[in-house]
Design brief:
Order of helices and strands of chain A: HHHHHHHHHHHHHHHHHHHHHH
Helix content of chain B: over 70%
Largest sheet of chain A: none
Distance between the termini of chain B: 22 Å
Largest interface: A-B, 62 and 56 residues
Helix content of chain A: over 70%
Order of helices and strands of chain B: HHHEEHH
Mean pLDDT of chain B: 89
Number of helices of chain B: 5
Number of strands of chain A: 0
Radius of gyration of chain B: 21 Å
Strand content of chain A: under 5%
Structural class of chain A: mainly alpha
Strand content of chain B: under 5%
Number of strands of chain B: 2
Low-confidence stretches of chain A: none
Shape of chain B: elongated
Oligomer: heterodimer
Shape of chain A: globular
Largest sheet of chain B: 2 strands, antiparallel
Structural class of chain B: mainly alpha
Low-confidence stretches of chain B: 1-6
Number of domains of chain B: 2
Number of helices of chain A: 22
């Protein structure tokens, strides 16, 4: 059995699709426990029993559609008009625009491709140092993960609801809990941008109402969307699935029929491309429902908790170990696989140490956000390396200061629970 | 993709690809349309059909599985893959064949057992909602895993073919 586990691990590291690894491990466990293997199929079918899951395909498609249109250009134009007058204005513009775009597109690397292509040359032209620009763009690719309606927040909510815990967690809770930690990350990075560029005497742009007016007019159709979607979610007017449907319809109408930037003929391709990502995530979620079923049946979290408890008595030590573990995990696994695989194991243990499930979600996602650009395998490092034609080694170096700043943020988020929980009153 | 695209086997593959893509696009469009309708009905007319909610949830499964089928075709499944870049070209080809065989086996098992689940519901004549039999809704699971395993079998075949004549070409 241990040998089989090692073989599976090796196959995974050699590039076997993750869903096949999880399915094989679930099936072998069920087989050994004398449980009929059709339980795996039954668990897979449960994908059709989760009302909130529809948000995943809908938001992903909406995100891809926005990426295909000129919405990123308009977003940058508007942010520039509003924030460009500040010192290190363009850097701040980049951070804010990326955070916003990532939240709405679900952190799948789309941000670097859609916004990086605009911001990187602009930053260069404005005279910012090359490595700062590379670091900024690569880091920003996952910034905004903690803001609604990002897909990882939704997925965490869905997974926790599957687990039938005594403490309930709703997706709406996650949306509220992410606000302050997300802002903390944003503010720290803005501070760093100001600090790095303090010596560079750059003529400050004046704030111009005219510029704002032009930018607002250009994005007049898109402007109401975040207010409708976020307003609808935060006031409880929309369920998450409804907010996703509204977003898709809104984006479709604006980009295809009003701006006409995505043609009807192009639409099937965008749908297909976005659904490849959704399919890849859902099949992993499906098979891990089965493996989770086994994990819970065999009472593995409790056993793990008891073992860990022997060595780790305090909550503080546990949190330190958790941070280290999640950093490594985040560098190896993408955020979606990490969520579906690890949360069923980790959450019961964390609750055993008295950690609020909402707080654990924020800790987990904040750590994973770092994982996107943790050397050696962080996904965004490669996307940026490919996109900007720079060696990966240079990106390691360029992102390092940003890494340490956000690591600081992650530590604050981890050891200061009320930052995540106070808005919820938990 | 290759210069032999007019040969019968490749033409069949192209047709299958078209069907997969077409069905995926159709189902996603249906999902968007129904979800939109449902919101309008609920908020403007304060009605809404429970059948639509059930249908939407099934559509998520179907879109997801079809997405996984297309992801297989484009080799875009999520994987970790950190060791293979340290292997030699030759070694990597061997490893790929082994990995592909593994995926074929896993998907055959998944297809078989989802087929068994389907047969149980077929014989029991289980109804999911408004007269729609459950087995019909479940059918995407065996179908998708069968296609995925066949596709990996094809990759495997191509990989072995490459290995066999690889010595002369490199």
């Amino acid at each position: 059995m241990i040998l089989f586990g090692i073989v599976l691990l090796l196959l995974a590291l050699l590039g076997a699709p993750l869903f096949s690894i999880i399915a094989a491990s679930a099936m072998s466990n069920f087989y050994l426990a004398d449980i009929d293997l059709s339980v795996v199929a039954i668990e897979l079918y449960r994908l059709a029993e989760m009302p909130a899951l529809i948000a995943l395909p809908l938001f992903t498609f909406a995100g891809y559609l926005m990426g295909e249109s000129k919405a990123p250009q308009r977003l940058v134009q508007l942010t520039d008009a509003l924030l460009g007058w500040m010192p290190a204005g363009l850097a701040i513009v980049s951070l804010a625009a990326c955070a916003f775009f990532t939240a709405f597109t679900g952190a799948s690397g789309v941000t670097i491709i859609a916004l990086g292509a605009l911001l990187y040359p602009a930053l260069k032209q404005a005279g910012y140092p090359e490595n700062f620009n590379l670091g900024l763009i690569t880091t920003s690719g996952s910034l905004g993960l903690l803001f609604a309606p990002s897909l990882p927040l939704i997925l965490y909510g869905i997974i926790v609801q599957q687990m039938n815990l005594s403490q309930s967690v709703t997706i709406d809770d996650m949306f509220v809990a992410g606000i302050l930690p997300g802002l903390l990350m944003l503010l720290l990075l803005i501070g760093w941008s100001l600090h790095v560029n303090r010596k560079v005497a750059r003529p400050l742009e004046k704030f111009q109402w005219q510029k704002v007016k032009v930018a607002v007019r250009a994005s007049a159709w898109e402007l109401p969307m975040p207010f409708i979607v976020l307003g609808g979610i935060y006031t409880g007017f929309f369920a998450v699935s409804e907010a996703a449907a509204v977003t898709v319809l809104y984006v479709l109408i604006v980009e295809v029929f009003i701006h006409k930037e995505v043609t009807l003929i192009r639409l099937p391709d965008v749908m297909r491309d976005s659904m490849i990502l959704v399919g890849a995530i859902l099949v992993i979620l499906g098979v891990s429902l089965a493996s989770t079923n086994y994990v819970i049946d065999a009472d593995i979290p409790t056993k793990l908790f008891n073992t860990i408890k022997e060595y780790v008595s305090s909550k503080l030590t546990f949190l330190i170990l958790l941070n280290i573990f999640l950093l490594i995990l985040g560098a190896l696994l993408d955020i979606f696989s990490a969520l579906v695989l690890m949360i069923p194991l980790l959450l019961p243990i964390a609750i055993g140490y008295g950690i609020d499930p909402v707080h654990l979600g924020i800790i987990f996602l904040a750590n994973m956000q770092l994982g996107y650009f943790t050397p050696p395998v962080g996904m965004n490092l490669f996307i940026a390396s490919h996109r900007f034609q720079k060696p990966v080694m240079q990106l390691y170096k360029a992102t390092l200061p940003f890494f340490f700043i956000l690591l600081g943020a992650v530590l604050i988020i981890t050891y200061w629970p009320s930052l995540s929980l106070s808005l919820l009153g938990r | 993709m290759s210069d032999t695209s007019t040969q019968p086997p490749n033409r069949i593959l192209t047709i299958i690809a078209r069907i997969e893509d077409g069905l995926l696009v159709f189902l996603l469009s249906t999902m968007i349309f129904l979800a939109g309708m449902q919101i309008i009905l609920r908020n403007v007319f304060s009605t809404g059909f429970t059948e639509t909610d059930s249908l939407l949830k099934i559509l998520v499964l179907w879109v997801g599985m079809l997405g996984a089928v297309v992801a297989t075709r484009e080799r875009r499944h999520i994987s970790i893959d950190i060791l293979s870049r340290y292997l030699s070209e030759k070694m990597r080809q061997y490893v790929e064949v082994v990995v592909d065989i593994f995926v074929v086996l896993v998907c055959i098992l998944l297809a078989t057992h989802s087929m068994r689940m389907l047969l149980v519901d077929f014989e029991a004549k289980t109804i999911a909602f408004s007269g729609v039999p459950t087995w019909l809704l479940e059918s995407i699971l065996p179908i998708a895993f069968t296609i995925i395993s066949l596709r990996y079998l094809m990759y495997c075949w191509q990989g072995i073919g490459k290995l066999l004549k690889g010595d002369s070409s490199t």
